Amino acid sequence: MVDQSIAGPVKAMSVSEGDRSGRARIVIVLLCLGLAAAVFLSLTSGASDASAVNVIRDWLSGAVPFDAALSARDSLIVYDIRLPRIILGILVGAALAVSGAVMQGLFRNPLADPGLIGVSAGSSLGAVAIIVLGATILAPVTALFGTLALPMAAFFGGLATTLVLYQVATRRGQTSVATMLLAGIALAALAMALTGILIFMADDRQLRDLTFWSLGSLGGATWAKIASVGPIIILALAAMPFLARGLNALALGEATAGHLGIPVQRLKYTAIIGVSAAVGASVAVSGGIGFVGIVVPHLLRLLIGPDNRYLLPASALLGASLLLLADAVARTIVAPAELPIGIVTAVAGAPFFLWILLRKRGVVDL
Amino acid sequence: MGCFSRIVAGPMVGLALAFTALQPADAAEGVSVFSDPSKIAAIGGSITEIVYALGEEKHLVARDSTSRYPKAVLDLPDVGYMRALSPEGVLSVNPTGILALQGSGPKEAVDVLKKTSIPFIEVPEHYSREGILEKVRIIGKALGADAKAEVLARDLDDRLTSAEKQTASIKERKRVLFVLSVQGGKILAAGSETAADGMVRLAGGVNAVEGFSGYKQMSDEAIITARPDVILMMSNAGPPVSDDELFGNPSVASTPAGAARKLIRIDGAYLLGFGPRTADAIHDLAVSLYGGQVTD
């Protein structure tokens, strides 16, 4: 556990601490309200005219619905399509945003994202392996796990990559962050090359599946998937707040953090396990949704400052809300068809982020 | 290090168990006739064409983005690409039945659709004459139009058989290379087990590609070795590739097709749909390949 004596020096980091923490608390309360609004909006919007309000009212009153068939259809849409998507969206959005914030703190680099430690490339390799080889070499795996074979392979692919990376970068119990960055680049390149071999082997139908998978979607949300990856993401997210103080101290440099009594080595591997589990599980169920891990933490740093004690929970809330809103757009804008969510996050998020950066030019800090 | 492995191994085992425990139950299958065929969603271009050919288009309430013929179909709501369906989108048109070509997906979307009380009929796809007749009979049966389907199937059978016979007496078989796309000078060609391969053979040609199935990028040397007499491409599929761009590729230029600048372009849905228009497409392709040698 973190020594209390570090609270002083770490607090002295930001200039107007009291001012900022007050503001941060207000922002977090607003973000909670925002998430509640996003959930309500997602639950009541969609391609069909199914009314979530009616379904819930039916359910609460236990009344005999006017049109049994229509109401059965509506409750299926609300409980089996919209609700799992909302829960998955909250989990994935929070996981991606918090993982981004933690990685940026750990590497002390504003450009760091979970992709750096090879977890995304490893997850993709696992997923592509199932898409391409699922009917032939890996048939026993798909027979055993059915539709869950792909998320599982993606998760293990990401975790295995991170595991190798960690072993490479760790010498005598000390993990070198610089070695890890370089090894991460090499491993990601290797995973991409193997993915390339699989893509070469793929037939046209598999290629189309791959394309859609790489654009990302919450469309495959089922209760079974949530039950399988949900606990992993929740556990990883629950561990992250304990990293906040350590990451704050790490901003002063590894040696300084060590002198302040922070167990730097333990901090590093907790962060890496947490991030690879959260991101591996997210990539597994929703494909490649980019952009959230970089933009959300930066946006919040501009709003509430770099203190991780507020930044991590705020990132979780904003990441979840933004992904829900993006998914609501994806589900309704070309109804009855659907856009891949990765397109929505980039098209909506990128210009907005640029605009923020232009306004705050020169004051981006970590 | 060892400690790290242990930390990871625990959740891995737990997760594997969680995955095995959560197998979704398979939906009940085996519907072949819609109890209420009044509002049908058609997924797959050839499915939609067959519904029109049967004169049953009044039942259609939605289509997918691959259904673009006949023109009237474009007025129906589009539920998206057949391999990226949104379950709520399909349900939003309130269908009483779903007719989907084999390969519609993704699997999760199809699973959710099968959970509803709406009958879901998957129509198999084979790139042959029998495949087309099978589609017609399955769709006819589903819509309760068996008699109409039998008439159409017989008619198509006659026309397909005679279309195939047109080239039966030709000795010199043309070698055809079907090019799906030319991306940055890379030729993506059709191997066996593709709609293009099936059409080339029905029209009395030989697929110049041997040794792979599906669509693959071909190396320059493989193109030269394939010695195609003719290049076949889809018109209206994405940005058009100019003749100069195709024949400007040195390996293509060195083949018989390149020397004679022999390129055939046919509408993609018409050529590869394996539906009611296929007999005409076979005839058109045969005439493009053999000209006057085609016997009617």
From TrEMBL, chain A:
It holds the Pfam family FecCD. It comes from the Bacteria. One of its GO terms (biological process) is siderophore-iron import into cell. Transmembrane segments: none annotated. InterPro entries: ABC_BtuC-like, ABC_transptr_permease_BtuC. One of its GO terms (cellular component) is plasma membrane. It is found in: Cell membrane. One of its GO terms (molecular function) is transmembrane transporter activity. The keyword Cytoplasm does not apply. It is a multi-pass membrane protein. Keywords: Cell membrane, Membrane, Transmembrane, Transmembrane helix, Transport. Its main location: membrane. CDD domains: TM_ABC_iron-siderophores_like. Belongs to the binding-protein-dependent transport system permease family. FecCD subfamily. This is Iron ABC transporter.
TrEMBL record, chain B:
It comes from the Bacteria. Gene3D superfamilies: Nitrogenase molybdenum iron protein domain. Signal peptide: none annotated. This is Hemin ABC transporter substrate-binding protein. It comes from Rhizobium loti (Mesorhizobium loti).
